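Box 3.1 A note on notation
Throughout this textbook, protein chains are presented in two layers. The first layer is the amino acid sequence; the second is a token string describing backbone geometry. Keep the layers aligned when reading.
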Amino acid sequence: MSLSSLSAHRLNNTRKAEIDVIFFNRCAKVGSESLLELFNKLEDFNNLNIEREGLRRPTKRQLEPREERELAKTVSGLEDGSVYIEHVNWLDFEDLDMPKPIYINLVRDPVERVISWFYYARGAYKNAIEYKKDPEKPTRSAAWYKKDFNFCVRSGDPECQYVPYTVIDATGNFKRQSLFFCGHSQDCLPFNSPAAIQMAKEHVERDYAVVGSWEDTNITLTVFEKYIPRFFQGVKIVFEMHNEKITNRNKNKRKPKIDEDVKEMIRKNFTHEYDFYYFCKQRLYKQYLAISLKDLNL
């Protein structure tokens, strides 16, 4: 693609939204807690309404058709300037005959995500939340909490074997980053499936205003501000003012160093997940470059 063909207008799906509401169907372990904290700071700054109902909902891998419709109705009924946030897969508002909101999300290196989840699941913060939700839930063994990721992969422990095309996992691990963009179809479930990845790409290209990444913080915040100004005006200033609190939100402080050969072992099973991840990053860079060229009047 030549530089002259880059158009911020064509790359901006915000204009396709039918209601002035953000639908942040946040992926797990991509830094969504940091973006939530940033929204908390922007709430008064930009006169936003952060709808927190979704933050209290239990996470489900997929929704039933009735649940999809109920959620779409909830989002569609929010007032202008609202932000709805939930760990939930992409919804087809058009198919549900509901007005389309402004879709946003974040992505992260697929292998770093699953490593982060492995230790987050064993952290005090998450388990305190789980206990509060269900005090009667059986506690796991001390050995499970002390499990080492390097050993887990090398030993063939089912928890750390990311087998392509599997649908049922030995334990919940959020390894399918693309699932949050693919949706609730059964075709989205097989892990590292080319078909699921293609569906996810199509939804990003068609619906999402911005899919950012904390790996490229400045680029992401710049694109958010330029492409969705109603919600993100002044976001870089706000971020700089509250940087420490935002970036430390829910930070995993006990994640040890993972051996490179272990990462390489499991990376081979994430080929299509990486394809999706790079697709989203490339799209983000195109959006950034398009506005940079526009600012330079090129």
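The longest helix spans residues 271-295. The chain has a mean pLDDT of 91.
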